[in-house]
Amino acid sequence: MGTKCEFKNGMQVFSSKPQMVSVGGMVTSNQQVANTTDETVVLTETVYGNTLDSTGMAFRVFLGGEISSTGTGDCTFTLRYGTTDILALATVTLANEDDIPFKLEYTGHVLTAGSSGKVLASAFTTVFQGTPMYFAADTANTGASVDLTADGSLNVTAHWDAASADNDVIVTHGWIEFYNQ
User: How many Å apart are CA 164 and CA 17, to the nearest integer?
Assistant: First the structure.
């Protein structure tokens, strides 16, 4: 027996639970943020209005790459829907680390849909080289208010709090997955 499939707002929807709606926002070339405090988009995906149209819809954002610093600054990754911050995740200052692999994952879900929707997320990152894992969450569990009826984008930005030739993050791979629970 085959799996039923339909299309909704340009995304393929399968009938089994949980339903993966779409994979997008692929990193197709290295995204580098170095020697600057300018915030830079490292991953983005267009989300058409009413795509995240039901309570419980979920998403997962994955990034991987390398990070370097001599301890002159922290790198902050921020998850946004349009211009609204959903969750920020800051790394600790790395001391004399060069080209250390990292992975970062955000998971989130829609608390309420509609023009005054709420999106809740948590995140963790692992920097390999004996550095511990870092976790961020909306501890109030209230979610960020976003208009889910309008076209927007789900994106991740990165920026350093101090510009230094030794501060460098390179996102080599990543993607965004959407699920209908």
Answer: 47
Mean pLDDT of 125-136: 71
Predicted structure pTM score: 0.83
Q: What angle do CA 100, 101, 106 make, to 5 degrees?
A: 130
Q: Please, what's the largest Cα pairwise distance for the chain? A: 58
pLDDT tens readout for residues 27-63: 889 999 999 999 999 999 998 888 887 888 889 999 9
Ranges of beta strands (E only) in the chain are 5-8, 11-14, 19-24, 31-34, 40-47, 58-69, 75-81, 84-90, 97-112, 117-127, 133-137, 144-146, 152-160, 168-180
What does DSSP say about strands 144-146 and 11-14: parallel, antiparallel, or unpaired? Answer: unpaired
Contacts 24+ apart (CB under 8 A), 130-136: 131/92, 131/94, 131/97, 131/100, 134/89, 134/90, 134/91, 134/92, 136/87, 136/88, 136/89, 136/90
Whether 121 contacts 56, CB under 8 Å = no
Residue 76, token pair as written in the block: 């902050």
Separation between Cα atoms, residue 63 and residue 77, nearest integer Å: 10
